[in-house]
Amino acid sequence: MKRGEVESRLLILVTLGLVAFGLVMVYSATSAAAALGGKDPTYYLKRQGIYAALGIVLMTIAQRWDYRRLRHLAPTLIVASIAMLAAVLVIGPAVNGARRWISFGPAVFQPSELAKLALCIWAASYFATRKPPQDLRELWRPAGALAAVFSVLLILEPDMGTAIALMLMLACVLLVAGTPARTLGMALAIAGALGTAAIYMEPYRRARFFAFLHPWQDAQGTGYQIAQAMIGMGSGHLFGVGIGNGVQKIFYLPEAHTDMMLANIGEELGLVGVTAVIAAYALFAYAGLKIALKCRDPFGKRLATGLTALVCAQAAINIAAVMGAAPLTGIPLPFLSYGGSSLVVLLAGVGILLNIAERGHAASTSVSDRSRRNSRARPARARDRAGAQRARRARDVRRVAGSRRSASGS
Predict the structure, then answer these.
(1) What phi and psi, each to the nearest 5 degrees, are found at residue 103?
(2) Backbone CA torsion sign across 303, 305, 307, 310
(3) Strand, helix or coil at 210?
């Protein structure tokens, strides 16, 4: 196999497997309730299938398109993302008290999904040619300030889960870039303190947090969703009740096809099914980080790390929330939960990862040239063997001449 082909095949296998399994589980989670309500049982399946097909097309295009061109698009993506995050607060329809979507006819787009990808590309591009921040003051400008702008806009929607995922992704990129772990730890502690303050100031967030701590004290109120998720997970036992045979999804478990998809999987496929899902995300993390490790291009290395962290961080947050180990944040399960924007953007990100696996080993990749005043990158050219031998002989001649001068002087 060619270099990087093993990781690419594993990444494709895991991604398409999760997408196909997600289509099955979306139908399972929505068909019964739709049929009982007199609606089309395949409505959500059809829409998710369309988004999956569009995402796979974008993944194929991104796999063939040179990822290094994204460096020039990073500022444009950042500006567009901020504009759309601000616009959704004004023109976005309110759904369950949140403004997160912009409608384009029958299509609905969630700007926060583009924001995650845009910040990932920008961070990888910026820290590929600049010295990584060593303290909090350097970290604040401009990465911290930009992340704060994104987080504030997301919290206003409100969408704190995406803000947390953004921070984790940025921390992974900075860690690979060379920022000390102590600096990152202090920065995340500050972000956590500010997030706790945001939770305390908003009554519904405060209620969700205390429901996470003691869900059974108000199992019919604020702790209802967590309690029903736990009932669903426990009802599956080892092998589950079978696909399509779950009952929690029918008017018991809220958002069974989005945020609570893992609870539906746990009920219908049991511990075996949940373990298989977690193992799939672990394989995705292995393949993505292996691609980042083998990539010789600083931009590609940071971008591959950020894209892998986006998928795995969201998966970890969702799994922890469904299992009752973390508060509910509204983060969907990547590739499995119903949601067009998330599926399309994540599949495009997988295409970029595949492109990095193919092109990241080339000798013409860009490397940082900090000696230039404009901090631009220069192409890296492998030194030929004859040139290396000439340089080695020149060093030997200089060393011998220096030793002779020192001997004559003594």
Answers:
(1) -95, 135
(2) negative
(3) helix
Give the list of residues 6+ apart from residue 273 with CB closer than 8 angstroms, or none.
236, 240, 265, 266
At residue 24, what is the residue type? V
Q: Does residue 158 have a cis bond before it (omega within 30 degrees)?
A: yes
Residues 6+ apart with CB under 8 A from 192: none
Helix (H, G, I), strand (E, B) or coil at 72: helix
- Structure pTM? 0.85
- Locus of tokens 């497997």: 17
Cα end-to-end span (Å), the chain: 61
Token code pair at residue 315: 């998966």
- By the 8 A CB rule, do 28 and 263 touch? no
Nearest by Cα to 261 from 23, 51, 35, 100: 23
The H or E element spanning position 108 is: strand 107-109
Report domain extents, the chain. Answer: 5-379
Q: What is the pLDDT of residues 291-335, one digit of tens each?
A: 999 999 999 999 999 999 999 999 999 999 998 888 888 889 999
CA atoms within 13 A on the CB side of 228: 22
Work out whether the CA dihedral 295, 298, 299, 303 comes out positive or negative.
positive
In Å, how far from its chain's centre is CA 3?
Answer: 25
- Which residue type occupies 192? G
* Mean pLDDT to the nearest integer, 20-48: 90
In angstroms, what CA-CA distances link 34 with 44, 231, 245, 267, 400? 9, 22, 15, 19, 86
Query: Are 357 and 4 contacting, i.e. CB atoms less than 8 angstroms apart?
Result: yes
CA distances from 66 to 11, 72, 173 (A): 18, 12, 20
Distance (Å, rounded) from C-alpha 326 to C-alpha 320? Answer: 5
Phi (first) and psi of residue 367, to 5 degrees: -125, 155
CA distances from residue 72 to 92, 121, 127, 280, 376 in whole angstroms, order as listed: 29, 10, 14, 33, 12
Check if the beta carbon of residue 281 is closer than 8 Å to that of residue 312. Answer: yes
